[in-house]
From TrEMBL:
It comes from Helianthus annuus. GO terms for molecular function: manganese ion binding. The keyword Secreted applies. It holds the Pfam family Cupin_1. This is Germin-like protein. Keywords: Apoplast, Disulfide bond, Manganese, Metal-binding, Secreted, Signal. InterPro entries: Cupin_1 (IPR006045), Germin (IPR001929), Germin_Mn-BS (IPR019780), RmlC-like_jellyroll (IPR014710), RmlC_Cupin_sf (IPR011051). Residues 55-201 form the Cupin type-1 domain.
Length: 211
């Protein structure tokens, strides 16, 4: 009888640990559609170490653009291993004078680590209190989920930071692009922002907006 109990116990142990192993990860099957709880899992038999390693952050992003900066993401789309794990990362390159304009990540909080250079970074709380500071190499700063924030290269050389997010799909919405890079009519932008229409037209021209 006790042998039977022992066997039942061992069976339960083996059954539960093999159940646990299929729950360890859920590498995104990018051939399927995203869902509110993430992508469906890739067949475990097809998962390899390359699903958990990403080399796309090794190279600097191209900063020859209006903002003189580049965000190179390692979100689910680029790094399917993060699917379902509540985590992701990205590389920020800021040339001299570069800026990541005021933006939010609706899906996750952000932790920034300065690897090189000097970055003035800050966020604005829901109470409209501003928290900003000039960060040096080795400093880290938090940006709580959903809040407007920015990063400016305030040094004399290029700056590099690695950011991590508490979501595999933190999302990115840049306020200036939301306001001036689409076809929302100038009079509506003016009515809702109190900006003068000439300024709005000018910004739409620079950022590719119309109307
Ligand atoms: C960087 O982007 C600019 C503007 O799009 C382009 O002209 C240039 O060739 C790019 N440089 C590299 C190294 O890809």
């Amino acid at each position: 009888m006790s042998i039977q109990i022992l066997f039942s116990f061992l069976f339960l142990l083996v059954a539960s640990s093999s159940y646990a192993s299929v729950q360890d990860f859920c590498v995104a099957d990018l051939s399927q559609s995203d869902t509110p709880s993430g992508f469906p899992c890739k067949d475990v038999k097809k998962v390899s170490v390359s699903d958990f390693v990403y080399s796309g952050l090794a190279a600097a992003g191209n900063t020859s653009n209006l903002i003189k900066a580049a965000v190179t993401p390692a979100f689910t789309a680029q790094f399917p291993g993060v699917n379902g794990l509540g985590i992701s990362t990205a590389r920020l390159d800021l040339a001299v004078g570069g800026v990541i304009p005021m933006h939010t990540h609706p899906g996750g909080s952000e932790l920034l680590v300065v690897i090189e250079g000097t970055i003035c970074a800050g966020f604005i709380s829901s109470a409209n209190t501003v928290y900003f500071k000039t960060l040096k190499k080795g400093d880290i700063m938090l940006f709580p989920q959903g809040l407007l924030h920015f990063q400016i290269n305030s040094g004399k050389g290029a700056a590099l930071a690695i950011v991590s997010f508490s979501s595999p799909v933190p999302g990115l919405q840049i306020t200036d692009f939301a306001l001036f890079a689409n076809d929302l009519p100038t009079e509506i932008v003016a009515a809702t922002t109190f900006l003068d229409p000439a300024t709005i037209k000018k910004l739409k021209g620079v950022l590719g907006g119309t109307n």
